[in-house]
Amino acid sequence: MPLVNVIRGDRIDSAPINVRTPFIRIPMWVALTWWTLKALGRLVFVVVRFWYVTVPAVFFAWLYGRFGWAGPVGFVALVAAVAAGWAFGHRPSFLRFGWWPVLSCYRRMLYRRKWMAAMVTAKLAVSFDSHTVLPVLRRVRCGGGVDVVVVRMVTGQIPDDFAKVAERLAHTFGVRQVKAAPGPRPDVVLLHLFRGDPLAKLVRPLPVPAVPEFTALPVGKREDGDGYELPLFGTQVLVVGATGSGKGSVIWSVVRSLAAGVTSGLVQIWGLDPKGGMELGMGAPMFTRFARKDYAAMCELIEEAATVAKDRAGKLYGRTRQHTPTPDEPLIVLVIDELANLTAYLTDRQLKDRIKAALSILLSQGRAVGVHVVAAIQDPRKEVLPFRDLFPTRIGLRLAEAAQVDLVLGEGMRDRGALCDRIPQSLPGVGFVVIDGDPTPMRVRFSYLSDDEIRAMAQTYGRLRVIDGEILEGAA
Ligand SMILES: Nc1ncnc2c1ncn2[C@@H]1O[C@H](COP(=O)(O)OP(=O)(O)OP(=O)(O)O)[C@@H](O)[C@H]1O
Ligand SMILES: [Mg+2]
């Protein structure tokens, strides 16, 4: 078939099928017009798309054309003067309506530039059917020390997917920490990017509430700038932290928040200091009962508290679910430093078993009847503290290993941002807590009382002392 090989007069080598696109001849002016229109379209797109650059550029060019150099320079000076006046005159509104929105736009640009790389390397980009879908960066809201990035997830993703790669994202965006929280809609996740550290500075002792609010004891500061209030009613508190992590400051912050109650007799604090009084000794007048050397005395204290708890539970049976403290039936708070000394390291087996038995009764029955335990320990493992789960409220200060975090705060909490093992030694008193109703752990710093401040507090608020069974004079 020779004809197949001849196309528009050209001879073509033999092939199964030969195809050639037809020539369409168009005049030069049509082509030129088309190219010009296309270029113009692109220009308009760029001008509109990057309005935040083009609009000011045009404006400044116009100022320059109209007034010379004085135009743009004068305008910048005017804006700076107005902003400075506003900032000094009314700082909160300046931050809220002036500074933070501008900063948000700028930061959004920064985050967008890294967004694709961040999503791909964190494996949050989803590939299927030969194309890739990225989570969408919607909005950025800046605030004091934290940027909240609103992200629309790819269908099928959950906030925990972001929580798991939070550390990677923190490094990518160059921030201290990233936390992922569910957004207002099911397909939205809120990434909290923490920049500065509001907890870097020591937290001074907080004012003593005249009547302690047992559901919200002021003990420290939260990462988001609010105060951290510990709910004591209905719970038992365990403080876990490596040596030097600031367990003492948690104990003293709690004692301070209850101090006015000690004076009025509404609260009794019983102190147990197995380290020989090193930690609690300075403030001994704060404690109605105090044991420091004698393990048998400590055991008796715990047994006594357990008996009180059982008696109250028996009396309150069927009447109420939460005991209300009165001077006749005060709130009893057992403060135990280095609990492991009583539950694990004690060599006297019999005594250890008695302590364990009394403690488990106290922990399980005391919380509704106003007999509470605030205990500190270094090692959260079950071998050391068999009844860890009887402490509903747990505070994780600096911990030695990543694996301990979930033991203390609960399954998955390290993934959600509780990096207790990363707290530097230079930040004692910093820790993570789980706040009721918030799925992500909150970073907090407890107030620090120096030895002198503890003594002064004991002078002002302390009462009777019973040390190792021996009754001493009241301090005040
Ligand atoms: N909230 C805090 N703010 C600032 N500094 C603190 C705070 N808590 C503790 N520190 C500092 O850290 C040091 C160690 O604290 P602390 O003795 O409370 O630790 P600890 O956890 O009880 O350690 P250990 O297990 O050795 O008893 C303190 O001497 C103090 O200087
Ligand atoms: Mg200590």
From TrEMBL:
PROSITE patterns: FTSK. CDD domains: TrwB_TraG_TraD_VirD4 (cd01127). It comes from the Bacteria. InterPro entries: FtsK/SpoIIIE/SftA (IPR050206), FtsK_dom (IPR002543), P-loop_NTPase (IPR027417). Residues 225-406 form the FtsK domain. The chain crosses the membrane at residues 43-63, 69-88. Keywords: ATP-binding, Membrane, Nucleotide-binding, Transmembrane, Transmembrane helix. Pfam families: FtsK_SpoIIIE. The keyword Disulfide bond does not apply. The keyword Glycoprotein does not apply. ATP binds at residues 241-248. This is FtsK domain-containing protein.
